Amino acid sequence: QTGMFTYDPGFTSTASCDSALTFIDGDEGVLLHRGYSIEELSEESSFMEVAYLLLRGELPSKDQLSDFEGTITRHTMVHEQLSTFYRGFRRDAHPMAIMCGVVGALSAFYHDSTDITDPKQRMIASHRLIAKMPTLAAMAYKYSVGQPFIYPRNDLSYTGNFLRMTFSVPAEEYEVNPIIEKALDRIFILHADHEQNASTSTVRLAGSSGANPFACIAAGIACLWGPAHGGANEAALNMLREIGTPDRIPSYIARAKNKDDPFRLMGFGHRVYKNYDPRATVMQKTVREVLTALNVSDPVFDVALQLEEMALHDDYFIEKKLFPNVDFYSGIILSAIGFPTDMFTVLFALARTVGWVAHWNEMISDPAQKIGRPRQLYTGPAQRPYVPVEKR
Ligand code: SDX
């Protein structure tokens, strides 16, 4: 071929890896964390219990869970100097831009847990990241709305603490509604880990160079922000709101099918699932629970249900095996709870930090692991002689 080299690399690609954390069967719509189904975990478990399971490989006993929650709780505060860091951003900065910056900066504040060769420091950094993400996320929200930062409290659950830090104001305490707390905790479980998705692969690749864990998680946050990945939850609700009424759905389905139109149905399709994303099933059920509990009806939910119904009976979507994914319904719940759309991906990052940290630990503690080096098929010109500029 013109200039195309062909070669047999004679090696297994470093782009793939072994992992014991999560199993996905995309054809069957199966998702397991350390062998437990996402359906059972999201129904029976808590986010902290799933965090322990992903990090340590087994469901904790009551005492183990209590110790783990106590450790995480005691790491929820952040260095006071970090609040100055927030003040360097414009108030209208996207909260994900703030999270990319602030999480990357953590290694400047917690350099006593950046030695990746020390298992003790690795675990402290892991606990710090899981514990501080809700505090940092709530601070990003507070900064964007011009309200004072609210400190974490040790008498609240992980998710309850986050809700209070986000929605409390000095003038009025936010009462954590247990139904909302349970729904958000379930949403965190649904986002905790998902095998070698783009952002997790980013964290593993960054970690393979020996970069400190805070920098690796910041890299994962940056990758997650993309609308094809974690940014889809924000894009999906914006799309549903733009559709507005069921009669406008056919025109959006037609656009999604038009090869010449870059528009995609946000919250639909998946690299791996060629069946219904099991997380979307749980998410749809949770929407009903939250809207009923809050005694609100959201016309966007009706649009979402009718859009799903029409798409799943459309030949294009059937042939391409396109189904709702985790991002299709999540925004409806998060909006009903009170989060603005630009916080949706921040919540995804908060929850996915558990998976990222578990994958980072799994990779970094493998003595055989080498620096990642995805290879390429060279498609450029064959070697050729230099031509001086006067002769070009
Ligand atoms: C997440 O990897 C993970 O696990 C990610 C994630 C996680 O938990 O980490 O699950 C989270 O990122 C979920 C995905 C969120 N993104 C979106 O909802 C954005 C909208 N979806 C698309 O951009 C798309 O479906 C992707 C990016 C998710 C996947 O795109 P691919 O790799 O092109 O999917 P595919 O190969 O299965 O597509 C098959 C065909 C293609 O057309 P042809 O090239 O065959 O002609 O279907 C088309 C695609 O163009 N297609 C769509 C579509 N998704 C795919 N057409 C219209 N609307 C869509 N949503």
Strand order of the largest sheet: 1-2-3
Run of helices and strands: EEEHHHHHHHHHHHHHHHHH
What is the arithmetic mean of pLDDT? 94
Oligomer kind: single chain
Global morphology: globular
Largest sheet: 3 strands, antiparallel
How many helical elements? Answer: 17
**Model regions low in confidence, pLDDT < 50 over at least 5 residues:** 1-14
The rounded distance between the terminal residues' Cα atoms is: 25 Å
Strand percentage, roughly? under 5%
The level of helicity is 40-55%
Rg over alpha carbons? 22 Å
Can you walk me through this structure?
With 392 residues, the chain is mainly alpha-helical. The chain has 17 helices and three strands. It has helices at residues 38-44, 47-56, 62-73, 82-86, 95-109, 119-145, 158-167, 178-191, 198-208, 213-224, 232-243, 249-257, 278-293, 299-312, 315-319, 327-337, 344-364, and strands at residues 22-25, 30-33, 36-37. Strands 1-2-3 form a three-stranded antiparallel beta sheet. A hairpin with a 4-residue loop joins β1 and β2 (30-33). α8 (178-191) packs across α17, α11 packs across α14 and α11 crosses α16. It is globular. S-citryldethia Coenzyme A binds next to loops. S-citryldethia Coenzyme A (SDX) is lined by residues 194, 197, 228-229, 232, 256, 264-272, 320, 322, 325-327.
Provide a compact summary of the structure.
Helices cover 54% and strands 3% of the residues. It has 392 residues and is mostly helical.
Summarize the topology.
Layout lengths: L21 E4 L4 E4 L2 E2 H7 L2 H10 L5 H12 L8 H5 L8 H15 L9 H27 L12 H10 L10 H14 L6 H11 L4 H12 L7 H12 L5 H9 L20 H16 L5 H14 L2 H5 L7 H11 L6 H21 L28
Antiparallel strand pairs: 1-2, 2-3
